[in-house]
Amino acid sequence: SAVFPLHAGGQYEYILVEKRGEKNNVGFIQLNRPKALNALCDGLMKEVGQALDAFEVDGDVGAIVITGSDRAFAAGADIKEMQNRTFQECYGGNFLAHWNRVSTVKKPVIAAVNGFALGGGCELAMMCDIIYAGEKAQFGQPEILLGTIPGAGGTQRLTRAVGKSLAMEMVLTGDKINAQEAKQSGLVSKIYPVDQLVPEAVKCGEKIAANSKLVSAMAKEAVNAAFELTLAEGNRLEKRLFHATFATDDRKEGMTAFVEKRKASFQDK
């Protein structure tokens, strides 16, 4: 795997960044604060944003995988950072606003979750497009136990993913669910043994990266619109994007290759 060049400020402090896959076309971000179980401090989330920005403009990268360690994807936001904040500071500084960067990336993002994905860690995973879980993964929103509520999408994305009753239960009790429960409820799409999780997530990234990056972005935009729009409006957007693929070389190449019974060679244009 090709190690990613360092960004302008020198080495990343809280994350490891490289490219993976046989063609080095999968961006790879590993959260790396092992002593703090990958607690999501402000610096870490800013670095994740920088790495995503770099992958977003990298023409070779077709998908991105975000993972943590075997023990923890991310055990939550950094509480020591938050402990003494006031309402005025939070509201005035729009606290946690830049966390949203993960959900605005145009390229598909896969979360590979081993161990704990709690609080902000669960919210980070839910900002990704696909979640794969290791067998020992645990998901939860324990903010209520600290006298607060989820603040980076936990009450919104979790409810859309698993439905009202389970979301309410998790948010109101702070109870965790395991990988099997997460799959049953629709929070994750696949479960793998701990040691196979990251390679499988990268494989999924390679499958995605093999298609047209341009058209993949359209597909992602269309699916995400399902959470924002009425059915009629969503179908209208889908139709517009579907028609838009006919303005691309890749759509022509894909259909021509199919008719000629050969493999398509997409140029991302």
UniProtKB/TrEMBL annotation:
Pathway: Lipid metabolism; fatty acid beta-oxidation. GO terms for molecular function: delta(3)-delta(2)-enoyl-CoA isomerase activity; enoyl-CoA hydratase activity. InterPro entries: ClpP/crotonase-like_dom_sf, Enoyl-CoA_hyd/isom_CS, Enoyl-CoA_hydra/iso, Enoyl-CoA_hydra_C. It is found in: Mitochondrion matrix. Its main location: mitochondrion. GO terms for biological process: fatty acid beta-oxidation. Coiled coil: none annotated. Keywords: Acetylation, Fatty acid metabolism, Isomerase, Lipid metabolism, Lyase, Mitochondrion, Transit peptide. GO terms for cellular component: mitochondrial matrix. The keyword Acetylation applies. Belongs to the enoyl-CoA hydratase/isomerase family. Homohexamer; dimer of trimers. This is Enoyl-CoA hydratase, mitochondrial. It comes from Seriola lalandi dorsalis.
